[in-house]
Automatic annotation (TrEMBL):
Localization terms from the record: Membrane
Source organism per UniProt: Steinernema carpocapsae (Entomopathogenic nematode)
Protein name per UniProt: Receptor ligand binding region domain-containing protein
Source superkingdom: Eukaryota
Domain Receptor ligand binding region positions: 10-77
One GO location term (cellular component): membrane
Pfam families on file: ANF_receptor
InterPro entries: ANF_lig-bd_rcpt (IPR001828), Peripla_BP_I (IPR028082)
The organism's taxonomic lineage, starting at the top: Eukaryota, Metazoa, Ecdysozoa, Nematoda, Chromadorea
SUPFAM superfamilies the record matches: Periplasmic binding protein-like I
Length: 190
C-alpha cells in the first residue's frame, strides 16, 4: 500500500517556517536562547517571510511560501475542470497572492495581499470570446459607469414622433368630419 504524503506537506512547511523564524530570532539576539520563550518575538520573525516549500519527486509541490503581515500564509489557489467525457484534469484559472504596496497589516488587520487571477484555459468560459469574465462589468454592476443620454434622447424622439403622427392624423380626421359630416377617411367631401 502506497502512503499518501500530500497531507503532510503543509506540516513540513509549517515546521520549516518555525525553524527559520527561530534561527532568525537567534541570529538577531546573538544566540540568546531565552528569547525563544517570547512568542511575540518569534511571531514577528515570521511576518513577511518567504521561502521555497517542499517539492516531491512525484511532481507535487506546495510552492513558494509567503507569509503576510499577520504571519498567515498568503494563499495560492487554482480552479480545475474535469470534462465529463475525459479523464484529464484541466487547470482553468490560477490565483496568486500579490503584496499590496504601502500596507500595514497590523493597523488594518489584513494580510496586505490581494489575489491576482490569471486565465490559464481559454475557450472554456461562456462568453463571446471564450475569455474569463471581467472582475467588474464594463458599465459597473448598476450601470453607473455608462452614459445612456444618447439612447434616452433617441427613444424620446421616437416616442415624440409617434405621438405627433398619431395626433396629426386624429386632427386631420376631425377636420374632415367637421367639414364633411358623415364622411369617412376614404371618401372625399363634395
Amino acid at each position: 500500500m502506497k502512503a499518501n504524503i500530500f497531507g503532510y506537506l503543509h506540516l513540513y512547511d509549517s515546521l520549516k517556517l518555525y525553524s527559520l523564524a527561530v534561527r532568525k530570532v537567534l541570529n538577531e539576539t546573538n544566540n540568546n536562547a531565552t528569547m525563544l520563550n517570547d512568542g511575540r518575538l518569534v511571531w514577528n520573525a515570521m511576518r513577511r517571510m518567504s521561502f521555497e516549500g517542499v517539492v516531491t519527486t512525484a511532481g507535487g509541490a506546495t510552492g513558494t511560501v509567503n507569509m503576510d503581515d499577520l504571519s498567515d500564509r498568503a494563499p495560492l489557489f487554482a480552479a480545475f475542470f474535469i470534462a465529463p467525457n475525459r479523464d484529464k484534469v484541466l487547470k482553468m484559472v490560477s490565483m496568486e497572492s500579490v503584496l499590496v504596496p504601502n500596507c500595514n497589516g497590523l493597523k488594518n488587520l489584513s494580510g496586505c495581499y490581494d489575489l491576482k487571477m490569471s486565465d490559464v484555459m481559454t475557450g472554456f468560459w461562456p462568453s463571446e470570446n471564450g475569455q474569463m469574465p471581467l472582475d467588474e462589468p464594463y458599465c459597473g454592476y448598476r450601470g453607473q459607469r455608462c452614459s445612456y443620454t444618447l439612447e434616452i434622447a433617441l427613444l424620446g424622439s421616437v416616442v415624440a414622433l409617434i405621438v405627433s403622427r398619431s395626433s396629426s392624423s386624429a386632427i386631420a380626421k376631425r377636420e374632415l368630419w367637421i367639414r364633411c359630416p358623415g364622411a369617412s377617411s376614404t371618401t372625399t367631401c363634395a
